[in-house]
Structure formats: structure tokens, C-alpha cells
Amino acid sequence: MADEKKKPAPKKEAKPEAAVAEKPAAKPAEDRPKKSAPTTGAAAGEATKTAEAPVAAVAAPTAAELLGEDASAKKIIKAKHAKNVVVGIANILATFNNTQVTITDMHGNLIGWSSAGRVGFKGSRKSTAYAAQQVAQDAARQAMAHGMKEVEIRVKGPGSGRESAIRALQAIGMEITSIKDVTPIPHNGCRPRKKRRV
């Protein structure tokens, strides 16, 4: 009798183990996709195609847009309706605190401009030569979007960005026809202020 009682107990334990072992195998985890695929085979195929197609379409333009300056140049042309000015004047104002570059046509009509503050420099960084280089490139891109190729440079002021702005205009691809220094110089015109008393 003791043997008979022990035998049913292992059988009862074995049955749940077999059932547990069978349940994962019997679970239709693999079968469910197969069942759903035949029922909506065409719909599922179209859904996967439509899901993949927009991802590919979105990825390609973003990569092209991230390549750089071409997108910004197109935006300028659309916004301002290209003026097709080939020859112009680049006025560089280099003070001790800032650098401004203004590009006009030969009559003085504005085509593009930039300053160190507009490019993103603040405080004492605006007076650096690197800031002047960035300013000149920004103004030149605006002018080139309107078709400008040749430029006559007029420099005013004693700032550190004089030469670097000229070099930046040349490096970006503009032809420089002449460089003039138009810094105003007094020649005994006005009466000086009275002497400072200390």
C-alpha cells in the first residue's frame, strides 16, 4: 500500500511537468504570425511596404539637407527673387569692437550684409579676426545667391578684421578687382577740443 501511494504521487508531478513542457511548445507564438499573415496577407504586405517606403523617402532628403549650404542658398533665392547682379562693391567696416560687411551693386543698392553679432558672436569675440572671416563669408553667400561674381572692396576703420575679411571674400570664390582704404582721416579741418584739466 505504501508503494501504491508513492506511485501515484510521482505520476501527478510528472503530469504537470509534461503539461508545462507541452504548453510552451503548444503556444502559437510562432503560429500567430503565420495565422495573421494568411488572413491579411495582401494587407500585411502592403502595410510593410508603406511603412518602409516613407522611412526611406524621409531619410534621403534629410541627408541631402544636412549636407550644408546649398539648402540655405536656395531659400535665399526663393525669398528674395534673385537680382542677377554680377559686379558689386563690398564695404568692410572694421572697428575695434565689431566688423560689418555690406555688399551692394555699383549704384549702392543693398544686396547682402552681415555683422559679427548676426553671425552669433557676443562681447569681445566680435572684434576678433575669426569673427570678421565668418561675417565676410555670410555676406558673400547672400550676394552670390543673387549672381554676384566680381567685387570691389572698400575698407574703413582700424579693426583687426580688415585683412581676414578680404581673404575670406577671396577664398569663397569672388573675384576682387580692387581694394581701397576709405578710412576718414582729419586734415586740420575742425578745431580740436579744449585741453583736459586734471
Structure overview:
- This protein is an alpha/beta fold and 198 residues long.
- It contains eight helices and five strands; from the N terminus they run αααααβββααβαβ.
- Strands 3-2-1-4-5 form a five-stranded mixed sheet.
- The longest helix has 26 residues, at 41-66.
- The protein is globular and about 60 Å long.
- Residues 18-22, 55-59 and 71-79 have low confidence and may be disordered.
Mean pLDDT: 76
End-to-end separation in angstroms reads: 126 Å
Beta-strand share of residues: 15-25%
Instruction: Give the number of helices.
Output: 8
Low-confidence stretches: 18-22, 55-59, 71-79
Reading side by side through the largest sheet, how are the strands ordered? 3-2-1-4-5
| Number of separate strands | 5
User: What class do helices, strands and sheet pairing give?
Assistant: alpha/beta
Radius of gyration: 37 Å
* Helix proportion range: 40-55%
**Structural shape:** globular
The largest pleated sheet is described as: 5 strands, mixed
